[in-house]
């Protein structure tokens, strides 16, 4: 009998993905298991690699613009903005104030849509179906707004070097106000349904704790970092565009568990509403494109680093120009890449049942990791 | 304020005249440093001591040689340091993954895309490219088919 001889202690391998609904994209994780506990995990990434950085070297500056909507498709406008700002720095272009306001309004709307999608999809990961329907209902109104202005629902390519191509009108501003008040009327529903839900609290409290020390060593940014209690938001700490003109707070957590990250994201949606409201009230008149934008973008020799705050953390672009119509090198520093590299440490010695809760709380967008 | 702290802590490692202040409005960085490959582990340890995080390590193919470029930034104050490390073809760069675990993935990425080896790296294998890829796509002489 095997049992009488003594069972040899052995670990086994479990394969999560690459086709799995909870990985939110084509991600594979090789898990070394000891019974129900994870001993080691190794994320296998790269299934969605499209060589954006190589494409950047082969295309002219304008031709690369549409790529930016396809790196992180959930917060595409922040990526648009980062690239435009980096090239504007190289060209020393000054963007008109009204264009900055339009950038901020659309970017923040896009941020809410990303957080709403996370909210719905994450709760579905945890087994709750209803919040998903609530969020997608709200998100639909937002997508209609952005669709009317930019012409697309997801992979936006709306900003241009020197400004924005289309002005917003009174209808759009009224639509923004209506959306904000609609979303605010939903907070009670969200809180009653999820925030105070005892099943949700028990599944997320004290699970997947990330310390501040880990955040620094891994370069963690975004809601995860703020959930761990470090009030770092690039819109505040390295102010850009029109953000310094608005009054908003940086929500932070204390323990750094999944529940804190959830609270941070929910609070950020309310802060986003505040920014939109203020921007609609203070919207200045004026041109929406800089004067004298060259037809042929050919920046002088130099290099630039530009960082923006996206829904998932810091997105940075490092562009090296050698005075050509094509960039010499474009490096994309994406937040999920750094955040995902912490995952093995998060998952270690945890139950496999918490794996999906952990993974979803990072809010990964796989094409952004793979680039 | 912070720039001065960094200059003070990095000068013993890099030697004099290796650090210069940059125009932040034009480049997005406050400080630029130039380091030799073997100075990187000490530099990384000094940056971690200042509570900086590793923002974006990458490389440049300059046709006849390489440059590994590290960006460091801080959660607590506005200060960004860019370090350029000139690397001749075939020369290894010591890993900084024992200081910054984040560098583990970044160095694997640079290794597979540029062919620059990081000595002492615990797990130098392909990250984004297929397991059996033996080409380095971000080299300038790698021709992309369209």
What would you note in describing this structure?
- Chain A has 371 residues and is mainly alpha-helical.
- Chain A has one domain: Cytochrome-c3 Hydrogenase, chain B, CATH 1.10.645.
- Chain A contains 15 helices and six strands.
- Chain A has helices at 2-5, 52-58, 76-91, 97-125, 130-150, 170-195, 198-204, 212-218, 223-227, 234-237, 258-282, 335-341, 343-347, 355-362, 366-370; strands at 12-16, 28-34, 37-44, 302-310, 313-321, 329-333.
- In chain A, the strands form two sheets. In chain A, strands 1-2-3 form a three-stranded antiparallel sheet. Chain A has a three-stranded antiparallel sheet with strand order 4-5-6.
- In chain A, helix 5 packs antiparallel against helix 6 (170-195).
- With 146 residues, chain B is α/β, with parallel strands linked by helices.
- Chain B has one domain: 2-Layer Sandwich (Beta Polymerase, domain 2), CATH 3.30.460.
- Chain B is built from four helices and eight strands, in the order αβαβαβββββαβ.
- In chain B, helix 1 packs antiparallel against helix 3 (40-49).
- Chain B is globular, with a radius of gyration of 16 Å.
- The termini of chain B are far apart.
- The interface between A and B is large, with 43 and 40 residues.
Relevant terms:
heterodimer; A: mainly alpha; Cytochrome-c3 Hydrogenase, chain B; 3-stranded antiparallel β-sheet; 15 helices; 12% strand; B: alpha/beta; two-stranded parallel ribbon; 8 strands; 27% helix
Low-confidence stretches of chain A: none
Element-by-element helix/strand order of chain A: HEEEHHHHHHHHHHEEEHHHH
Number of domains of chain A: 1
Number of helices of chain A: 15
Q: What value does the Rg of chain A take, in angstroms?
A: 22 Å
Quote the average pLDDT of chain B: 88
User: How much is the radius of gyration of chain B in Å?
Assistant: 16 Å
Give the C-level CATH assignment of chain A.
Mainly Alpha
Helix-strand string of chain B: HEHEHEEEEEHE
Beta-strand share of residues of chain B: 25-35%
Instruction: Report the helical percentage of chain A.
Output: 40-55%
Question: Biggest sheet of chain B: strands, sense, closure?
Answer: 6 strands, mixed
